[in-house]
Each structure stands twice: as C-alpha cells, then as structure tokens.
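Two records follow; treat each independently.
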Amino acid sequence: MLPHPQDERTRRAMLLLFYAQSGVSLVAAALLVLLHVGTQIDRVALPALLTWGAAFAALIVLRMLWKRQVAQLPEAADPAPWERRAELGALLTGGLWALALVMAFDARQGATQMYAGMLACVTCVASINVMAPQPRAFVMLLGPVAVALIALFLSLGSWGGAYNALLVLSAVALAMALTLRHTRLLRESHALRFEREALLAQAQAAREAQTRFLAAASHDLRQPVHALGLLAAQAAHELQGRRAAQTAEQLQAMAQALDGLVENLLDVSRLDSGALQPQCRSLPLQPLFERLSTEYAVLAEAKGLQWRLRPTPLWVRSDAQQLERLLRNLLSNALTHTLHGGVLLAARRRGGRVQIAVWDTGPGIAPEHHERIFQEFVQLANPGRDRRRGHGLGLAIVARLARLLDHPVDLRSRLGHGSCFAVSLPEDEPRLLTEPRTVPQGQPLQGRCVALVEDDEAVREATVTLLRTWGCEVWAEAAVAPLLARLRAAGARPQRLISDWRLAEGDGLSAIEALREAFGDRLPALLISGETLPMSAKALRALRVQPARKPLPAAALRAWLSAPSEPPSEAH
C-alpha cells in the first residue's frame, strides 16, 4: 500500500479529490442499500434488516457531512485527521457490507452464494476510481468484505467453495493492483499540475520583471537622448548662419537616429514580453491614411519619389495606435529601399476582410528571403550597416505587431520590379464621424513664464537653456515644493507647466495638480515621459494634460508653448 504523498499540496489535492468524488459513491450506496433491503425483506428477519439499513443510512449522512466540511477546509489545515475519517468511514462501510453478505448467504442455495459474490463485486470493484485518491481507505473497505466472503465460501467445506474463495482472493489482488496504479497516475498528474503552475508563476514573475526593466530602461535611455536633442536644437539656434551650424544639424540628426534605434529596441522588447495589450475598436481608414500621407508625401518628395494614396471609405476593427505603428514601419521600409518610381498606400475588400497594401517599386525581394527579412537586424542590401538605411528592426516589429493584433501580413515581390506588403484586417460597419477641431495658430514666446519640474539635472539645464533662448522666463526645480516656494517668493505666475513623469518625489501628475492648485486649474500642462504612462492619452487630455514622449523634438515643444491657452482661473 502506498504511503501518503510527501508533497503537502499533492496530499491535500488527493484528499479533496477523494471527498469530492465520494458524493457519487454515497448516492449509489444509498440506492444499493434500498435494493438490498427490497430483495432480502422476505429472507432476513425484519428487525435485523431494518437495523442494518438504519445504520447504513446514518453512516451515509455522516460521510456526507464530512464531505461538506472538507470542501470548506482552510489552506493550512492538517489533512491527517480527515484522512483518518476517510479510512474510518470506509472501514465501517466495508463492515456493514460484510454483515449484509453474512445475512444473505445460505449454504443450501447456490443463488444466494452468487448474489453474495455479485454484491461484493459491485460494492468494492466499482469503488476503485472513487477511492483511488485514498488507497488506505480502499483497503479498509475491501478488507472486511473480502474476509467475510472468503470465510463464507470456505465454510461450505467443498472443492467448489474453496475454488470460489480462491477466485475472491484473486479478485482482491487484481482490485488492489488497479487501485494502486490509478493512485500513482493521480499523484503524478497532480505533481505535473503543480510543476506547471510553478513554471507559469515563474514565467509571470519574469514577465513582470521584464516589464519593470523596460519601464526603467525606457526612462534611463531616453533621458540623455532627450537632453541631447534639446542641446542640439539650442546649438543650431545659437550658431545660425555660421559654419558650425552644419555640425549642430548633424548632431540633431544623430540624436534622431539614436532615438529611432532606442524606440525600436524597446518596441521589440515590449512586444516580446507581452507588456502591450491591444485595445481594438472600430476605425475609419481614411483619416489614418490622410495622416500618414501628410508625413510620407514630404519624405517621398525629398527622395524624388512619387507618393500615391488611394482614398477609401472602409472601416476596420483594430488597435488604432498599434495599427498606425505597423503601417508606419511598412511605409518607412518602402521609402528606404525605393530609389526610383514611388510608393502606393491603398485598401480594398478581399475574402470578407479588408486588406491594406503598401506597394513600392524597389529592388524586390527574392523568395528565399521572404521569411528572413522579418527577423531582427536583417538588411539584405546594407552589408555595411549604414544607419541612414535603418537598423533592420522595422519589419521585425511589423511581424510582432501582426501577431499581437491577429492581422496576417502577406508579401508579394518580384526582383527588379518591387514589393507589396498586404495587411489583412477584419472589416467593421461605418459610423458617423465628427468634424475635427481646428488647431489655432501659434503665438510668440517672448516673456512667456514657464514652470518646469525635472529631477534629471542634465535634462533640466538643457530645457532651461533652450527655453530662455526662445525668450521664455523659466522657473525650474527638481521637485514641486521648492519650485512653488521660489515662484511665490518672486510673485511669479507661470503660464505653462512642464513636468517629467518619473520624479524623485511623487510623479508628474501630482506635481501638475499642486502647481494648478496654487496658480489656477486652467493652466496648460505638458507631461513628458520616457516610459509607458499608466493612463491613456485620452484620460490625460480629459484632465487638460498633454502627454509627450521623450525625446521630445524641439519643434514640438515650441509648438505647444506657442499655442494660445484659455485664461487661467483664479488661484486657490
């Protein structure tokens, strides 16, 4: 007989399984008791038969009560007492069935001998599956029944009786072997389940650690790139008209290239870690196409290429941000590798879905490279790793986004003629679009008062220097408390609020709320972050906070500063 499992979780799981399955066996036992009383009512003394039936009914009720109590056991409860109850209940059950065999068995009638054998078979062999989680309990059930039946057959004093006793003994051995085998399988399955749960927990912990790492890495990598971009913009402004201005422009280009590489690497990591979860909704394609066309038509013209956009009334169901990122990577890839001709962006219905296609007249891709180009850092026509031709991550990001969104990407290409990347999306019903709000024209920055909360000294100094170059009056500190003290002491009232998200004390949103409480809740605020914010851009705009990602281009910062604002309300 197997000892109890050493692993406490497996031991508890086997105990719970035994009691959970015992409900079916107890109902079957109750029916069998009624049938036995009905068949023996004319053969056995009625008082003895009713006493036996009442004892069995009381035992069934008791075991049902134990079943309900075990189902409510706390996690840390000791299973040993309930294992002993299971064995006691099985022993009493086996004893009562053994007594039933003795009452039904008649040495003069072969029919009663056959009935006793069948009753023992039904009560014991049919309990193998139910009692396998507790093999000791099965022994307690089987023992009294087997001993009583063997003794009854041997009491006949004939070879037939001895033969039947031997058959009973063989059946007992077979039943025990089947039970122990079933017990081992159950224990192994529970051990595998707990091992799988442990592996899943480790994987979840690893994903959470990777997510935390990505948040920290995103912030720490973008901080110096953000400062570099601001310093390069300041240098370009100060050196305007001089020979060194070209060097400043090259510095800006290097900062943009570094930003692109950091962004792509973080995108790959976020997609691989499962940190990004799509938020799919109904989307019209035409506004997205127009937004992309505004940007990529200029890039195509700069390369002497034709840009073509085919208007579409189609709507799809997708994640707006991730779909735009996917298409941007495809368009950037097409413009990078196309030297003559042009690029086309179009959409059409096909096979009950919408297919967005990006066509180019580039060199084409050989069939043997169709899968390879979606791997990281693969650039077929850039063996020298010229950074002006990208980093080899765009299509790798496309492949990951396609899997994330369940938007398959198909590639058709002919060497020397060009390529077509087609993204397949589910179609959605058109809806009514609201008119876009007109963006107001900018205003000069001379004398504009700006409050800045930034705990990174290099970024803070670079931002202050650039803003002062534009004519702004800047008040900057690493935390909101000293900034408020300086502003109040000088009697200054800021017209714009800028804060980093990750601060040594609190977060940027809390800093903006504190400044607004002091100087007016209508003050325009810019929240800059080098990581994924816990709130959506829509939720932040509802709080009248403009989110921005590091590194923030100087032109974008100036455009936000120069936009007119609502008159500030009175300070609290």
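The next record belongs to a different protein.
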Amino acid sequence: MAVMQMQRISICALKQHRKAILEKLQAMGIIELTDALTEDTYFQRMDTVNDRILFEKTASMSDRSLDILEGYAPEKKGLLSALEGKTLVEAEVQEDVVRRKDELLEIVRRIQALDKENAECKAEILKLENTIQSLVPWLKLDVPMKAQETEYTSMIFGTLPGNMNLESIYEAVAAGLSEDSHLKIGAGEDTGGWDIDIISSGQDQTCIAVVTLKDLAEAVEDSLRSRGFSRASQEWTETPSEACKALEGKIRKYRERMEEIKKQLLALSEYREQIKLLADYYRMRADRYEVLGEIPQSESTFIVSGYIPEKYVPELRKSLEDKYDCVIDIEEPQADEDIPVLLSNNSFSRSAEGILESFGLPGKGEIDPTMIMSCFYVFLFGLMLSDAAYGAIVSIACGAALLKFPRMADGMKKSLQLFFWCGLSTLFWGILFGGYFGDVVNVVSRTFFGHEVSIPALWFVPLNDPMRLLIYSMVFGLIHLFTGLGIKGYMYIRDKKYLDCICDVGLWYVFLIGLLIMLIPSEIFASIAQMEIIFPEPVNMLGKVMAAVGAVGIVLMSGRANKNFGLRIALGAYDLYNVTGWLSDILSYSRLLALGLATGVIAQVVNQMGSMFGTSIFGVIGFIVVFIIGHTLNLAINLLGAYVHTNRLQYVEFFGKFYEGTGRPFNPFKEHTKYADIKEETRL
C-alpha cells in the first residue's frame, strides 16, 4: 500500500552524447520528461517536427504493408491469441533490422506497389466485365459495331426504350418521314430507302441496326429519337462476339498478373517479423525526436528534466555516469508541483490496481488504498458469486491463461490475476454455503441413481436462511465502511490534524456505535435477524450516551471553521443529517445477499430443467446439454454482476468516506512499441 516516492531529476550532458543518452533513457523507461528551461540566449529548442512526421509516416507505411500481407497471407492465430502479448526479441535482432532498414523499406514499398497494381487489375477487370455485359445484347450482330458508310448508304446502331417489335418501329419511322417525303409508308410496305433489324429485345431496351440512304439518314434518326432512340455508346472495329473474346482475353491476362502478384506477396510475407520491428523502430524514433524538439540545447550541451521514482535513481546514475560526461541533479519536488503517481504493491494487491486507476489515482495527501481495497474486493466478490464450482472454473481458467501467456499485456494480466483471486474467494464461500453448480449433486443422484446424496454446507445454506445472510452482509458492509472512515482518521493523524480526527472521525464512531447498541436489542432488528439479543441495562445506557454525545459533538464541531455560532450549528445539523447516507450505504450491502441468492437460484433452476428429460439415454444427453448451456450463461451473467457491483461498493460506499483520486498517472519516456518488446534493461 504505497505510492512510489518521486524526485525531480535534471541531466546536463554533452551534445555529442545526446542520441545515446536519449536512447538509454527511452530503453530504461523510468523518467517522465518535463520542460527544463525556457528558451533564452544560450539554450534553444530544435525544430524536429518535419523529422518526426517523416518517422511517423514511415511507421504507418510499415503498418500498412503488414495489413496488406495479412490480407494475402494471414498469420495463423489461436482463439486466445489476444492474450499472447508482444513478442520479446533480443537486442541483436533489432540492431540487425536497423542495419537493414533501407533494404526493408524497399520491401515495404514493393509490397505497397504490388497491392496498388493488384487493385488496378481488379478495377480494369471490373471495367472490362461491364463492357462485356454491355455487348451481350449485340452478340447476334455479325458486322463490326461501328457507324459505317458507303457511297450511298449509312448504317446506324442504337437502342430504343422498352420491348418494341419491328412493326411499331416501322410505324414510328414512317410517321416521322411522311411530313418530309410527302409519302405515306405503312408497316410492311416498301420503305424505298431504309431498313431496320432488331438485334435483341428485352424488357428494358431494344437493340436495333438501321441501314438507310444517306439522304434519309438524318430524317430516319430524328424519327427514331422521337421514340427515345439513342446511339450505341461504344464503337468497335470488330463484331461484338469478336470484341467479347478479345476482352475476355484481357481479363485472363489481368487475372494471371494478379496470381503472380499474390505469389510475390506470399514470398514477401517471410519479412513480416522484420517489418514489424522496423515499424517499431521508426515509432520509437518519432518519440525520441518529439522529445528532442522539447529539450533545451546549447551549442555543446543539452538538458533533460523530469520526474523519476526514488528507487531507480542509483540505477540511472550507474547507467549514465559510468559511460558519459554528464551531471545528474536530484532534488525533492516542491509542494506545489503536480507530481505524477506510480503505485507500488505486492503481487496480490497489484492485481487490483486497475480497479483503482479506473476511479482515479491518489492525489496530494492521499494514501494508496489498493492493498486494503483488494482484500475487501476479493472477499465481497466471492460472497456475491458464492458457488464453489464456478469459483474453481474461474481460478483454473485464469491461472492457466497466466501460465500459458506470460507476456500478455500488463492490464490484461492484472485483470486475470484479480479474477484468479476472486475465483479462490468464490470457491471458499461456495464450500461454506454448500453450492456446487447449485444443487447439481442432489439432482443428479436423485434423478439418475434413485438415491439423493448431498454435500453439506460448512456454514449454512443461504437459500434456506436468507435473512441470516442479510444480517452478515450488513455486518460485512459496516466493517467495510468503518475501515474507510478509519483510513480517513489515519490520514488526519499522519498530517498531525488531531482535532480534525477527533471531530470528523472519532465523533462519528461514537455516534454510530451508540446507534448500533441501541438498534440491536430492538424489535426491528429481532424481526430481521429472527433472533432476540438483550444487552444488560448498563450497556443500553452506554449506547444512548454514546449516541447523544456523538450527535451533540457533530452538531457543535462539524462547522467549527465558521466563527458565526448560528451558521456553525446549522452546518453541524446538516452534517448530522448525513446519518441517512450511512443508512443507505449499509443497505447497499444487501446486494451481497441478492447476487448470492441469484446465482444459487438460477443454478437450481437449470439443474431442475435438465432433470425433466427423464432417466433414459436421451435424458442424460438432454441434461448434459442444458447443464452446459445453462451454467455457462449463469456463470457469465453473475460474473459480470459480481464485478460491477463489487466495483460500485468500492467506488461509492468505500472511497466515498476518505478518497477523491485526483492524481495523474506517471507517464515515462519509454519504448512505445506495437509489435515487440526489446530484451534489454528492466523497465517499469
């Protein structure tokens, strides 16, 4: 239960060692960099924006090439590949990639060029297929599909809307020509200068070929236009069938090229791991250049300033002072500085750091409550789930994942570690309450063996005695709340605010304990607990005195900062009214009963449903199916419920007594890699 002690650090070194020192600091990952000095005559900042953008662009280009390779040659990944984390590579491997970076960048560009060419081939194929589709209605045409002329005739190709027959087309042309030629030409009569053939006809359009005398060509076309005629959009020097064959040949060539591209990309996929390291290298370089643009530099020196955990100072001194000409200055931060927060806990409590970080890190003057919170968290989580079999499943699954994937992301590792401990807590409570997949032992023995066998609870069965569990839930809640109030008192004593501790913590303890002594012998408590507790009269009198003294003290002292006596009393009375908040907080712990009963009831319903299939072989199969599906859903739902409600009890009831969480996280200058970690010095 600790927050690492931070110290302010300043490093002044020769400019010739700038690159090496920044690389070392980034590899160690133990310093959060801040502005060291304002610019002046001697110290200036470099403009590294263009270089940083170039490195970021190169890293993105490498990422893009990896995405391309994934599309053509996907990596084989298991169902739990998300838990594997980053690959750990030796420093020599990364150095080899850096030496070959120009060669690898050419490969990256080659991958993108091939992908671009492949996309162009796809686009051309689509274009050619659309062209072939447009030629399909003209396949019966046995002449080139191009407007042709002889000395006296013209040939026109085009389409009319809808499904038209030859008679209606002739009538349309004849009607249009009659005014100009002064001839009435009916369907079926000799047209005397033009002829029309229907090449194809469909619901949407009719394709026609028109042969006409040159003198009549314009008039014939105008007559057809009055019925929606439009010339064919494409002209071909060969027949449509010949054009289609030529286009299909082009498509085959494009497809062959695409196959060649695929083979080349498959061959280039052997560079996938090197490209990953290349992307990480440029990503780290971009980070270094961002820092390089922020640190002040003179003609021959540069300065780095920031925060470092005190425990890492000797390690840093040894790494830098033995190799480089530099001066390292360590000093205590000022009281008004915004110091970053880095938690330090044992392996058990560290698993709950993610829960605390979700709420907020400790601010100035606050303690790290992770250790105490983690104990309560695991305790209450197990009480909510409270089935031994479910707990065993959760612990075994999380433990196996932690052993199999030791390099999983830190956040995921903490979560699985927390659920591992929560699973053990659930196993513990399940044994106390006699819950093993609900009452599956009873149901199976009774249904399939004709003789009921049960595993007795070591304590009691909540479904048979729910009010008893309710009382214990509130007792556990009271301990939880009193602990939070006690931490507040400890913080006052640590800061030597003894009066505040007495008035804001001690009086509340006196008042609340007095109320409890008065409540326990009452009829209300007896009806809830289904048992009667009688205290000796001196104890009853002590409870009344404590409640009265506490109430009066709270009224008189809560507003002590105000000199106005009336306002002071009003503020004290308002603070005393917060006893209703204590009541609601204690009642909130009834969720321990509700979720515990929900788990057991749903499990019993699932078992009962499974047993309804009978004792035949089909009954056994039906029971197994219902058992697996039902208990899987029950575990998932109540696991989520226990997680959410345990978080709420910490955030609202527990933290509400002493904790604000206004701190900011420690953000060290380190290697922010995407694909692999470099095996070098120990990092945070």
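Discussion point: The mean pLDDT is 90. How would you locate this feature using only the token line?
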